[in-house]
Amino acid sequence: MNREQMTIANLYDTTKTAAEPFLAEYTYPWEVLPHIGEIIRKIGETLSAEEYDHPQEDVWIHKTVRVAATATITGPAIFGKGTEIRPGAFVRGNALVGENAVVGNSTELKNVILFDGVQVPHYNYVGDSVLGYKAHMGAASLTSNVKSDKKLVKIHASDGEIETGFKKVGAMLGDYVEVGCGSVLNPGTVIGRNSNIYPLSSVRGGVEPDSIYKRDGVIVRKEDR
User: Fold this and answer.
1) CATH of the domain at 114
2) Is the full-model pTM beyond 0.90?
3) Number of helices followed by number of strands (H, E) in the chain
């Protein structure tokens, strides 16, 4: 996967997130990570009190959102129309969650943008990540956002590494990405649009769009199956 394929323009339909005007300021999705909290506050200031509840400082929840009594939410956070927050969900702050999304039972979010239609429904950890339109993470699949040696994360593109300058970078999932159950997306993973990850995979680097990532790092184009 080359650098051009890793750009916001090639990974996402930005009309599917309230962050669209802010994402236009960046080339790569990980560049937005330090600014998510600020973006949420700016968006929150524009939201209608007729449409959104404002139960605590820096938290806005659309009145159609279903929130389980046992969910824990810390701001800044926004949850769009029609979204569901299931029992035991733990939102640790800096979470911009779009419309018709699912934040599942015992799922933890921290410093993320989830586009409309994203599903992280069962025992997921998603941190320092951007998930595109209708991306789906299977049960117990996780984003790993810190390297074991605690060094700064690099993005491994086919045409050269990109220094992020950040210690914490999770995964960037393009629109319609499907991640199989029990998979781990290692720090700085970028997955192109319409790609699938086999269950129980450990993914590093980039996966081109319209591809299937099989176990042991084998990647095939969907048309070549």
Assistant:
1) 2.160.10.10
2) yes
3) 3, 25
Q: How far is CA 84 from CA 37, 52, 54, 102, in A?
A: 21, 14, 17, 5
Q: Taking the CB of residue 220, how many other CB atoms lie within 10 A of it?
A: 11
pLDDT tens track, the chain, 225 positions: 999 999 999 999 999 999 999 999 999 999 999 999 999 999 999 999 999 999 999 999 999 999 999 999 999 999 999 999 999 999 999 999 999 999 999 999 999 999 999 999 999 999 999 999 999 999 999 999 999 999 999 999 999 999 999 999 999 999 999 999 999 999 999 999 999 999 999 999 999 999 999 977 798 998 765
Residue 51's domain comprises 4-224
| Domain count for the chain | 1
SS (H, E, C) 152-204: CCEEEECCEEEECCCCECCEEECCCCEECCCCEECCCEEECCCCEECCCCEEC
Structure tokens at 59: 């938290």
Burial class (CB in 10 A: 0-12, 13-18, 19+), 37: middle
Residue with tokens 């299937």: 212
